[in-house]
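Appendix B. One record, verbatim.
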Amino acid sequence: MSEIQRLVADLRRVPPELRRELRPAIQRAAQQVLNEARGRASWSSRIPGAMRISVRFGGKAAGASVVVRAARAPHARPYEHLGSPGTFRHPAYGNRRVWVEQAARPFLFPAARATRERAVQQIDQAVERALQRTGWR
């Protein structure tokens, strides 16, 4: 089990009083991922402003995520291309009879990879501090 998987499993078991204390610390740690992703997507006028941080403590997505609101930047997903270089196809100016290829420009996955270790370390430290203060085991 990786360090990130252990952290996610631990965050699922955090009691509500610790969640209130941890949420701002987790958001601060995720802010560097958000800043990096915004920088990598600075070629777009809409994508950087459509990004936000989501902090959750339940389910499979426990932890912090950087998400892009599709309503504000519908083109973000095809450009992200699941973090892989390559191309994607789309209709030319909405004409479904004429399709064009366009180069992908991943921004979220590379930003997460570049800042992952530091963000996990900051979140881990915040969890440890909160647990020590409350005496929770």
